[in-house]
């Protein structure tokens, strides 16, 4: 890391204050000296083991000496003031660094030292430091507690009044959980002035009644906001009955939250005015900010430590009794309830609020994220997890700032409440000009789906499907599995409902004989007691209720779907068949849903006698998809969290050296040649079929003689830098049986490709097996993605692939093996022997480890991989490296 000047970042302290973390250097001499000079004698003694004022000058000189080999100093500052300093100096062994940390008086116990040490450890790992070493006075309990609470392994050695601490820098799950917990608490603290403000100001309400600012001011006033409300206007003293002042500085109380609704060019100045006055949070509804205005807005927010929602958003709302804030320009106030909603699109937000209102599902907090400069879906998940009011989270996210951190948060939150999203942008045509099969397979839609699946997020395809699923999860228990009983009063609608269930991946099982007899005793003559159950149009409400009640209590399925159509018979007798659904007694052991084709609304919640509701859909497909999502959530919750296994014989250091050597020779990156590819894969225990490098015809013949198996047959492949798809260019020959055929094949390749061909690769002809492909692609946003599926020449044509984000747990690997349509071939389809599943699992885990170790790994493409009962054989492999610095997705920093 010597000589590297990292870009300053902003991060949250424990109390929600925004601190700036940057590299310290010569310009900080006076600030560092002042930091120590302003310390109390006691704190100065704890830092230097002496209260000698000369220590401040010596410490300032050390920082002012600047960046030098083995030394790094990081500063934390707020509003231009130095809050803390952390330093390391690498010891002669090269793997340990001596550290020190100091915090300004008045800023203790606010997380300054911990935040600095997290960032210092990040820099040290990049410099190949594996441990920190520190000496402290035994009475310095604060610094010893900081070391202990980092989440890293700490050993102590006491020597009289001093204690020597060694802090191992291994970034394991314990450490990540500790960092995550600190980030969560800091994030929640920073959102308090945004979502629970005591004072709110609206800037840009104006005098015309039709302005956005006026609509927001009116909604806040009419929504019975419990806090103080002001308007800011250069001329008006009152707007819509709300007291107005010329500037934020003139307000009688400093706002916690300011809502800015001014023209785009005026936004940065308005934000600056807020920051100088001490405002702690902004909602910017203004749209159309250009790059200059956007940069200025973010600079103001970070400099003054203000959290920001927007710009280009609908606003936010919090319905808690002691808040009752509606700072949106929506047409109606969201009703109080337990659904948290965060959206990027204002239009989607309005649609979701209206849809939830029609269902009678209230909202705990609503945030329109807009262009999402700062506050994100990750922030909102953490807020809902802790607010004590939310039990259902609905998200609409068009982009992800830090998907891996979002995945960790969502995975944790989804254990306590359903997290639903609408998967927008599925029509993306994939990666354009994909360089390999892996890159071609790894479409943005597949990458997002991998994130959602691994994190336990329920991803709907449309807003209607999202609301339909939310209605079910809000109203009904989760099914234990995927088996569904279908009941109808018209055979045709029952068949359609059964088809919809099967299409959604559910099962409509046959009934056992005793259950058929029991149902026949409850139903009128002519009823069909199989599954689907056709009670016929002659069934009255009580017969239908008894049938449903019996199936809900005792039935063999995990959910009951009832499809009802109005008939002339029911109308003539005054029968209310829907009442049979809502009068089933007591708590439900399994979900009960209705399909009412005559219903106008796409989904409604029907009140049950005695409390609760039953979701009713106008289309069986909506009901089936909602049940399928509920079953998938139940399955996800029932699984224990997976684990990333330890892998023997992995040579990470050697792999990094190979990578560095290649990029030194090829600064722009590129595809590795076969020999370097084999060396890199070998560092991770990924073996290829035996092969030889032949530069001319004679070497090819010799290689064929040496490598030919019992049948004497070999394969010859042309090679030149940049050759990727050999089959498409007819750059290979198969089933070569003797020396003359080898010579003829070589001459053919030379004739067709000439000097472009560098050499050929000779391999023995492989045994039979299932052709698969496995690979890795580094997504610029999501990180490494492992892709697996059917291989060979038809891999892109058939598109039978599955993907998961690395690092892969054992459960992720199981899902990869079982998700593709070709998976039955691996488990012994039609009596054929099963493939070596253990070998496939190892291959995927090792690819995942390689991708996580090497951020420079842009693509790895193993195709075909031959899977047979006696082992796994990689027949062809390609690897592309690009220059890329590692970025720790879990390091605490704001965007």
Summary tags:
895 residues; seven-stranded mixed β-sheet; flat
How would you characterize the overall build of this protein?
- The chain has 895 residues and is an alpha/beta fold.
- It is 36% helix and 23% strand.
- The chain is built from 28 helices and 39 strands.
- The strands form six sheets. The chain has an eight-stranded mixed sheet with strand order 1-2-3-4-5-6-8-7, with helices on both faces. It has a seven-stranded mixed sheet with strand order 11-12-10-9-13-14-15, sandwiched between helices. It has a seven-stranded mixed sheet with strand order 17-16-19-18-20-21-22, sandwiched between helices.
- Helix 15 (463-475) packs across helix 21 (620-638) and helix 24 crosses helix 25 (739-753).
- The longest helix is centred in the N-terminal third of the chain and has 23 residues, at 173-195.
- The two termini are 23 Å apart.
- The model is unreliable at 1-5 and 427-438 (pLDDT under 50).
- Structure classification: alpha/beta
Helix content: 25-40%
The shape is flat
Query: Biggest sheet, open or closed, and with what strands and sense?
Result: 8 strands, mixed
Percent of sequence in beta strands:
15-25%
- The unreliable regions are 1-5, 427-438
- Radius of gyration computed on alpha carbons: 33 Å
The N- and C-terminal alpha carbons lie at a distance of 23 Å
Strand order of the largest sheet: 1-2-3-4-5-6-8-7
SS summary, helix count: 28
What is the average per-residue confidence, as pLDDT, rounded to a whole number?
91
Count of strand segments? 39
């Amino acid at each position: 890391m010597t000589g590297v000047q990292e870009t300053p970042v902003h991060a949250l302290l424990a109390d929600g204050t925004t601190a700036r973390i940057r590299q310290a250097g010569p310009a900080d001499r006076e600030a560092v000296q002042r930091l120590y000079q302003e310390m109390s004698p006691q704190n100065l003694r704890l830092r230097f083991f002496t209260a000698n004022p000369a220590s401040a000058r010596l410490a300032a000189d050390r920082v002012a000496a600047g960046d030098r080999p083995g030394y790094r100093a990081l500063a934390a500052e707020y509003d231009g003031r130095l809050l803390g300093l952390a330093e390391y100096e690498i010891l002669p062994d090269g793997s340990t660094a001596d550290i020190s940390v100091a915090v300004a008086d008045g800023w203790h116990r606010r997380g300054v030292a911990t935040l600095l040490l997290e960032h210092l450890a990040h820099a040290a790992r990049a410099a190949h430091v594996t441990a920190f070493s520190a000496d402290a006075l035994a009475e310095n309990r604060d610094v010893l507690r900081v070391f202990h609470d980092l989440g890293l392994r700490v050993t102590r050695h006491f020597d009289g009044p001093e204690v020597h601490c060694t802090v191992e820098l291994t970034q394991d799950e314990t450490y990540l959980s500790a960092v995550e917990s600190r980030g969560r608490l800091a994030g929640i603290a920073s959102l308090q002035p945004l979502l629970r403000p005591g004072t709110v100001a609206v800037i840009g309400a104006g005098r015309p009644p039709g302005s956005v600012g006026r609509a927001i001011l009116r909604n806040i006033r009419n929504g019975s906001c419990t806090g103080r409300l002001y308007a800011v206007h250069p001329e008006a003293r009152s707007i819509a009955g709300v007291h107005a002042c010329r500037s934020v500085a003139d307000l009688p109380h400093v706002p916690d939250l300011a809502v800015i609704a001014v023209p785009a060019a005026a936004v940065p100045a308005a934000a600056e005015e807020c920051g100088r006055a001490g405002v702690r949070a902004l909602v910017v509804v203004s749209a159309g900010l250009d790059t200059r205005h956007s940069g200025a807005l973010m600079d103001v927010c970070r400099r003054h430590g203000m959290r920001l929602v927007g710009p280009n958003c609908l606003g936010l709302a919090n319905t808690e009794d002691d808040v009752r804030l509606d700072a949106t320009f929506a047409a109606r106030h969201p009703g109080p309830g337990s659904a948290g909603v965060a959206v990027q699109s204002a239009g989607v937000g309005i649609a979701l609020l209206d849809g939830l209102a029609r269902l009678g599902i209230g909202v705990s907090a609503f945030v329109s994220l807009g262009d999402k400069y700062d506050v994100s879906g990750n922030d909102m998940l953490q807020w809902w997890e802790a607010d004590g009011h939310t039990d259902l989270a609905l998200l609409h996210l068009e982009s992800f700032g830090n998907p891996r951190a979002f995945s960790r948060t969502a995975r944790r939150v989804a254990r306590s409440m359903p997290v639903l999203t609408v998967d927008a942008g599925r029509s993306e045509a994939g990666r354009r000009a994909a360089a390999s099969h892996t890159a071609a397979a790894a479409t943005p839609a597949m990458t997002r789906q991998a994130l959602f699946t691994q994190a336990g997020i329920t991803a709907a395809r449309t807003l209607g499907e999202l609301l339909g699923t939310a209605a079910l999860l809000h109203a009904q228990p989760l099914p234990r599995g995927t088996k569904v009983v279908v009941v109808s009063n018209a055979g045709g609608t029952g068949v359609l409902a059964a088809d919809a269930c099967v299409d959604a991946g559910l099962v409509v099982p046959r009934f056992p004989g005793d259950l058929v007899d029991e149902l026949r005793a409850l139903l009128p003559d002519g009823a069909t007691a199989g599954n689907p159950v056709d009670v016929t149009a002659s069934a009255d409400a009580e017969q239908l209720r008894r049938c449903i009640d019996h199936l809900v209590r005792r039935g063999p399925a995990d959910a009951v779907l009832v499809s009802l159509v109005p008939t002339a018979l029911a109308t003539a007798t005054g029968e209310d068949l829907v009442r049979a659904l809502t009068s089933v007694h007591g708590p439900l052991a399994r979900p009960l849903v209705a399909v009412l084709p005559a219903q106008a609304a796409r989904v409604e919640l029907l009140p049950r006698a005695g409390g609760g509701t039953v979701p009713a859909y106008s289309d069986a497909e909506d009901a089936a998809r909602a049940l399928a999502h509920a079953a998938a959530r139940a399955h996800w919750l029932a699984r224990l969290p997976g684990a990333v296994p330890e892998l023997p014989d992995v040579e990470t250091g050697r792999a990094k050296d190979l990578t560095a050597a290649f990029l030194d020779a090829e600064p722009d990156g590129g595809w590795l040649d076969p020999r370097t590819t084999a060396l890199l894969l070998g560092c991770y225990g990924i073996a290829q079929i035996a092969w030889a490098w032949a530069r001319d015809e004679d070497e090819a013949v010799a290689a064929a003689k040496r490598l030919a198996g019992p049948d004497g047959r070999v394969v010859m492949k042309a090679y030149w830098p940049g050759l990727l798809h050999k089959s498409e260019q007819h750059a290979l020959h198969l089933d070569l049986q003797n020396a003359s055929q080898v010579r003829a094949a070589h001459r053919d390749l030379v004739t067709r490709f000439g000097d472009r061909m560098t050499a050929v690769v000779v391999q023995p002809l492989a045994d039979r097996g299932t052709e698969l492909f496995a690979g890795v692609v580094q997504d610029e946003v999501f990180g490494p993605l492992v892709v697996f599926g059917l291989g060979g020449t038809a891999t892109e044509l058939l598109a039978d692939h599955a993907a998961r984000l690395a690092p892969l747990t054992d459960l992720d690997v199981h899902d990869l093996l079982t998700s593709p349509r070709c998976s039955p071939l691996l488990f012994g389809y039609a009596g054929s022997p099963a493939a070596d599943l253990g070998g496939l699992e190892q291959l995927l885990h090792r690819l995942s480890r390689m991708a996580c170790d090497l951020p420079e790994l842009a693509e790895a493409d193993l195709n075909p991989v031959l899977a047979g009962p006696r082992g796994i054989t990689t027949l062809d492999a390609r690897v592309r490296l690009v220059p890329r610095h590692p970025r720790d997705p879990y390091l605490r920093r704001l965007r």
